[in-house]
Design brief:
This protein is mainly alpha-helical. It folds into three domains: about 120 residues, HUPs (Rossmann fold, 3-Layer(aba) Sandwich), CATH 3.40.50; about 120 residues, Serine Threonine Protein Phosphatase 5, Tetratricopeptide repeat; about 170 residues, DNA Cyclobutane Dipyrimidine Photolyase, subunit A, domain 3 (Orthogonal Bundle). Helices cover about 45% and strands about 5% of the residues. The protein is built from 19 helices and five strands. It has a five-stranded parallel sheet with strand order 3-2-1-4-5. α3 packs parallel to α4 and α14 crosses α16. It is globular and about 80 Å long. The two termini are about 45 Å apart. Bound molecules: flavin-adenine dinucleotide. The site of flavin-adenine dinucleotide (FAD) has 27 residues, from α9, α11, α14 and α16.
Length: about 475
């Protein structure tokens, strides 16, 4: 049997893994590899919370491979070098991987492919992380989409995802030449307390989460998804970020059920993920450059003590602080509250969205190279199909609308638990006043901050968007 490397990247699963299935179908002795590449070609090394999830996910992948007669080979170093060296050491006939879409990774993969081909090693890459690859959908004039709704309409009419692939029942025994390092020595041991409270890292945890969401959460999804106090969304994001399940598995699981508006709504959120990857592919540098170049002229402020108050959940606005504390404690934050906290940073504090993007990147278990910068640019107003900059969330009204009885705020800010619902989003107005040690006064006045942000925006000169 000839050896072939299957290089796991953002696809830490055995089911619906086209690279793995193709290597096995070709009759190879598969060498499953993961490379810890600290000088990653992708946007930047993973943050603290995501590394913690990754560690557990790799352990789950290793256990799944072992139960089928193989194991995971862990290597450290620049992926371009270590994959090449492994291919030589194991006399691999081929290397298989599933495609990634950011520019740095694509360039790195293209170089590695050339090196391997020059040595006579075949390379095959596959679609596994998206329903529709960025070059598969275009506007009628042959351009990439800049607006979500027509993008998703085109995807819905063109996507024919087909049945997900089964996981292999058995795997060939690993070649002796494929030594690697033990998992524990390779990865950081930093843990963020509370990570994994919602589901278990790894493929089995992802599938459990999907089926429990479809059974109990899908029907009320439309009504519940904007209420942060409820467990009203799928919480599949960390599983999707590392590819512990595929969008095709989700698509298949949803579309084989009775059609429903809830199913369509949920699939459209998967569509936002597709849209973000489409932008990542076509625009690139999403984490660094404003998609709307006029934002290059925005006079962002830099007040480290205010940024720290935001990071630590001490802004004096309960819905903002509850979200930031949920993030610190669990590595996850509800989507509505992501929007509110991001709006507060970029508009009330007039802080460059890149500061927030970096903080989220470090703290989120679902930190995603496409969804995170696209989410930040959408809120800041600098992105494709973004919320206009002048739409400035009022954190009090947002709190009163989406957390009317303060259940969410009280969960994450126990110091406010004794306040009545009518005061929970305006704690500065209670009588007698709360001591600042217990809970801070607002770090900025909403009305003044709003005016300041609008003035800054009014000074921008319109320029054409960076073209995807
Ligand atoms: C400022 C900001 C930063 C964000 N950073 C990230 C991030 O780093 N990683 C991440 O996965 N999502 C990010 N999002 C998008 C969204 O908040 C999360 O995907 C969602 O909250 C995850 O929870 P869920 O899996 O329960 O979502 P569900 O509502 O159950 O949605 C299912 C899946 O659809 C996708 N999805 C849902 N909403 C969006 C969206 N707005 N954009 C892109 N994909 C979406 C996700 O893959 C999600 O897991 C960000 C949003 C904002 C506003």
């Amino acid at each position: 049997m000839s050896n072939a490397i299957v290089w796991f990247r953002a696809d830490l699963r055995l089911a619906d893994n086209p690279a793995l299935s193709a290597a096995l179908e070709a009759g190879h002795a598969v060498i499953p590899v993961y490379v810890v590449d600290e000088a990653k070609a992708e946007i930047r090394p993973l943050g603290t919370a995501a590394v913690c999830w990754l560690h557990q996910s790799l352990q789950a992948l290793d256990a799944a491979l072992r139960s089928r007669g193989s194991r995971l080979v862990l290597l450290r170093g620049p992926a371009e070098r270590v994959i090449d060296e492994l291919a030589t050491r194991c006399q691999a006939e081929a290397v298989y991987w599933n495609r990634l879409y950011d520019r740095g990774t694509r360039d790195r993969d293209a170089r590695l492919k050339q090196t391997l081909l020059a040595r006579g090693v075949r390379v095959q890459s596959f679609k596994a992380g998206l329903l529709v690859e960025p070059w598969e959908v275009q506007t009628k004039s042959g351009m990439p989409f800049k607006v979500f709704t027509p993008f998703w309409r085109a995807c819905r009419s063109q996507a024919k995802p087909g049945r997900p692939l089964d996981a292999p029942a058995r795997l060939p025994r690993l070649a002796d030449s494929a030594a690697g390092e033990p998992l524990a020595t390779l990865l950081h041991r930093k843990t963020a307390s509370g990570l994994g409270v919602h589901s278990t890292p790894g493929e089995a945890g992802a599938m459990d989460r999907l089926s429990s969401f479809l059974d109990d959460g899908l029907e009320p999804y439309h009504a519940h998804r904007d209420v942060p106090a409820l467990d009203g969304t799928s919480r599949l994001s960390p599983h999707l970020a590392l590819g512990e399940l595929s969008p095709r598995q989700i698509w298949h699981a949803v579309t084989t059920r009775r059609p429903s508006p809830a199913g369509e709504k949920f699939l459209s959120e998967i569509g936002w993920r597709e849209f973000a990857y489409n932008l990542l592919f076509h625009v690139g540098d999403l984490d660094r450059c404003n998609m709307r170049p006029e934002f290059d002229g925005l006079p962002w402020l830099d007040h480290p003590e205010l940024i720290e108050a935001w990071q630590q959940g001490r802004t004096g606005y309960p819905i903002v602080d509850a979200g930031m504390r949920q993030l610190l404690a669990t590595g996850w934050m509800h989507n509505r509250v992501r929007m509110i906290t991001a709006s507060f940073l970029t508009k009330h504090l007039l802080t460059d969205w890149r500061v927030g993007e970096r903080w989220f990147w470090d703290r989120l278990v679902d930190a995603d190279p496409a969804n995170n910068p696209v989410g930040w640019q959408w809120v800041a107003g600098s992105g494709a199909d973004a919320a206009p900059f002048f739409r400035i969330f009022n954190p009090v009204l947002q709190g009163e609308k989406f957390d009317p009885d303060g259940t969410y705020v009280k969960q994450w800010l126990p110091e406010l638990a004794c306040l009545p619902a009518k005061s929970i989003h305006r704690p500065w107005a209670v009588d007698p006043p709360l001591s600042p040690q217990r809970y801070p006064q607002p770090i900025v006045d909403h009305a003044a901050a709003r005016e300041r942000a609008l003035d800054a925006f009014a000074g921008l000169k319109r320029r054409p968007p960076r073209s995807p």
